[in-house]
Amino acid sequence: MGVISRNVSSVLERVEAAASKMGRTGDSVKVVAVSKTHDVEKIIAAAEAGIDTFGENYVKEAEMKIAAVGGDLNWHLVGHLQVNKAKKAVKLFDVIETVDSIRVAQVISTRALSIGKKLKVLVQVNIAEESSKWGVLRNDLVFLLEEISLLPGIEIAGLMAIPPYTEDMDEARSYFASLRQVQESINALNMEGVSLRELSMGMSHDYEVAIEEGATIIRVGTAIFGMRRT
Ligand SMILES: *Cc1c(COP(=O)(O)O)cnc(C)c1O
Fold first, then answer.
1. Nearest CA to 65 among 39, 32, 90, 89?
2. Count of CB atoms situated within 10 Å of the CB of 178
């Protein structure tokens, strides 16, 4: 058995364990294998080991890989999306996890409608309010969701966050809990067209904690594919 296949089994087992600890089943958590910088052979190996959803950060890189891999895999965009790449992204991806402005949402919606799609998106929240990070601030979130909910080519599926890197699992947990609280408080508003089901949070080093705090999507790169070439 190859290393990727072993890694996938180990991640899936740990997902199952973390979920069942919370009274959930493993299949309530979607594992997105983040394959940026890794080549197509590795993606195929992960798919053969049972992964059906992959994450890429760059539209151009994804375009090449999706064409090369083929098959009926699902693709999530997990990197920041520039407005001038949005058209292409709509064609390539099943979910765009990184919407954080009305401008990019408008382009996505228009493009999606023109190809007969309604695109699932997550709104990226800058949960620790870091000046260096993408994502909408908590205070601007309701307004942004209101605007996006009016766009006919978009389905708002939930929220995503990339908290500051930390080895301290209590600190990691507090960011995940904050995102879940944001989700709950928005859902309590019962906004028309805004029902946040998904929470995308947790990466290789902290996905179990994220699941304990309610993640429905985890984004795992290194734990499946090994270290990235930089
Ligand atoms: C690269 C990346 C990941 C995967 O990170 P690992 O630590 O390798 O699991 C997850 N989410 C986003 C947004 C990324 O850019």
1. 39
2. 18
Q: What averages of pLDDT result for each successive group of 10 residues across the chain (230 residues)?
A: 94 98 95 97 97 98 95 95 96 98 98 96 97 96 98 98 97 98 98 97 98 98 92
Q: Which residue is listed with tokens 């990226």?
A: 124
Q: Which of 89, 72, 39, 79 is nearest to 55 (CA)?
A: 79
Question: CA 100, CA 82: separation in Å to the nearest integer?
Answer: 11
Atom of ligand 1 nearest to the CA of 207: 9
Closest CA to 52 of 22, 14, 82, 95: 95
Distance from C-alpha of 151 to C-alpha of 142, rounded to nearest angstrom: 15
SS3 73: coil
Q: What atom of ligand 1 comes closest to residue 57's alpha carbon?
A: 15
DSSP letter at 217 equals E
Q: Which residues pair with 200 in a beta bridge?
A: 160, 217
* Token pair of 74 as six digits: 């699902």
Instruction: Report whether 181 contacts 214 (CB < 8 A).
Output: no
**What sign results for the dihedral spanned by CA atoms 45, 50, 56, 60?**
positive
The per-residue pLDDT for 66 is 97
Report the C-alpha gap between 149 and 162 in whole angstroms.
Answer: 23
Q: What is the pLDDT of residue 1?
A: 65
Could you tell me if the CB of 33 is within 6 A of ligand 1?
no
The sign one gets for the Cα dihedral 158, 68, 224, 170 is negative
162 C-beta closer than 6 A to ligand 1: yes
For the question of whether the overall pTM of this predicted structure is more than 0.90, the answer is yes
